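Structure request: DUF1778 domain-containing protein, Methylomicrobium album BG8.
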Amino acid sequence: MPPKHQTPTDTQTQAVNLRVRSDIRSLIDRAAKAQGKTRSDFMIDAARRAAEESLLDQTLVRVDQKTYDHFLEVLDQPPSGEGFERLMAAAKPWQE
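Returned structure:
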């Protein structure tokens, strides 16, 4: 007996239709080709990344006052240490 209600699984796909100007479509096609992807794969990857970034940008972290005060104290300290010194001594690509 077939299920009364089917829900999409990770392997099922659904169509998404977009209308886009021809110059943007050409740009997308060039970028997809440069990455060895189909237009659909390129657009899906780009949309997924944008969606994830958008949701991550909305993440709220709650901490107690003591932890928050410590966080601000650490941020207010000037950077230092071997790693920082090495980074500052490294060649800058824009100065070559």
